[in-house]
Amino acid sequence: MPAEKVIIDTDPGIDDAMAILFAIVHDDIDLIGLTTIFGNVTTDIATRNALALTELSGVDVPVARGAYVPLVQEALPVADFVHGKEGFGEVPPFAPSGSPVEQTAADFICATVNANPGEIILCPVGPLTNLAIALEQDPSIATKVKSVTVMGGSVAAGGNATPFAEANIWQDPHAARAVFEASWDVTLVGLDVTHKVICGPADFAGLADAAPKLGGFLNDAAQFYFRFHEKHDGFYGCHMHDPTAVISIARPDLFTLEHGPLDVIVEGDKAGQTIKSSDTFRPRANLCMGVDDNAVREVFLSTIKSSF
Length: 308
Hints:
Elements: E1 4-10, H1 14-25, E2 29-36, H2 43-57, E3 63-64, H3 80-83, H4 105-115, E4 120-124, H5 129-137, E5 147-151, H6 167-171, H7 173-181, E6 186-189, H8 191-194, E7 198-199, H9 201-210, H10 214-233, E8 238-239, H11 241-250, E9 255-260, E10 262-264, E11 274-276, E12 285-291, H12 293-305
Helix pairs in contact: 1-2, 1-10, 1-11, 4-5, 5-7, 9-10, 11-12
């Protein structure tokens, strides 16, 4: 079968880097664009980091700069305590030679979907602002994408930014609501599964040994991530949030699904919480609730190791 054409909407971010490099290397994914957003870092740093990752990998993937602020609410602080001020832990910032395309992220999404009807998978692994803006600009893209795979939210696992909200949804709940209301095929890869996929120092040391360029970079960046999880979650390793979402595109057989409409609480103490909706007129989403965590972990590690 031909490789899946994927646009990753991203705020790189240590686990974003894992997801992007995985997508670049994996034979069943054709990464045709990166669109950038605030979240782990500012939009400008995210854009620089996305360009740096393509140059590190030696691939020509267009990067489009996205929105700077949420749709409605005030911008929340970036997660530099998780990913470091420059996004890749203590790895010094890259100075990429390339530049983003002139199109905004939303324009790039609309143009690419319209040029490839029925073929594009959108994979947002940050706040959903760019997708919501693209929908507002051209509602017809909802009928033209192949599907949308969202890393964000949770059905039963609670939150990681607040007791209720996962970070990507919390950063722009109004955008998430718009995405879940649209009539496209959405799969939610949330904390229900991503909290179960964990890698540790030995895994990343193995990547560095097998693939010094990409694996070595990820190993260096991940050290900051390990320390964050040790302090906040009590284990020295990391959840594999964003790569798990991308892996679900290449290996959907490793996940078990429930189905139902979703909504998002947009204000109050529970702002950013994803909830099952009782509105039968809403489209049903595919909700990842189970995962073969060992297999997902092995797919990630073996793919990056193949990049030598």
